[in-house]
Amino acid sequence: MRKIKIITSLILIFAMALTLGACGGGKKEMAKYVQITMEDDRKIVIELLPEYAPMSVEFFLELVEDKYYDGLVFHRAVEGFMIQGGSPYGDGIGGCGRTVKGEFASNGIENNLSHTRGVVSFARTNVKDSASGQFFIMHDDGDFLDGEYAAFGKVVEGMDVVDEIATRPTSGEMLIKKPIMKSVRVLKNYKAQ
After folding, report:
1. ∠8-14-19 over CA atoms, to 5°?
2. Sign of CA dihedral 125, 49, 137, 106
3. Separation of alpha carbons 154 and 165, rounded Å
4. Cys bridge to 84: 11, 27, 136, 166, which one at CB 3.0-4.6 A?
5. Helix (H/G/I), strand (E/B), else coil: 44
């Protein structure tokens, strides 16, 4: 009788473990790709790289989930350097109202993702933990930013869109005609080309 109770208990424990595993009882896997759809329906697909900056990726995904970026613009462009977006008023000031820890060497966190063409990184003020939603996409290599900014992803599709934005007319570094991000969404079944 005791053997039957032990076997029954083990079967129940095993069944519960299988059920929890199937229902996501384990650690939630982060999304891997995000798509920015511009107002003219052109797309930029970003591969998120949490192995370099997990807090930054999680923060970015929270903002995407909250639809923070929907309707915002790329406001700044420097040809041969980068384009920047995510300012709530399109003027380069402000963010979402909260910040994330800066994941880069000068802030005591190792991040070996170099700021090469296509890399996505959080913009910030002179305060190291001040990133609040504004991000930039490298138009060309800029390894002088390594160790100072939290790189967390890389464009895998749509660099032609980045190129076009980077070469638009500006007043200083502010884009004169600011392209709108119609929506920014997680891609669930994206296959990199």
Report:
1. 125
2. positive
3. 17
4. 136
5. strand
Whole-model pTM: value is 0.85
Which residue in this structure is represented by tokens 């977006």? 85
pLDDT bracket for residue 192 (50, 70, 90): confident
β-pair partners for 120:
137, 153
- Dihedral sign from CA coordinates of 34, 77, 84, 68: negative
Q: What is the DSSP letter of 174?
A: E
* Per-residue pLDDT reduced to its tens digit, 107-151: 999 999 999 999 999 999 999 999 999 999 999 999 999 999 999
Count how many Cα atoms sit within 13 Å of the Cα of residue 23 in the half-sphere of its side chain: 7
Q: Which of 6-10, 51-55, 72-76 is the least confident region? A: 6-10
CB 33 within 8 A of CB 190: yes
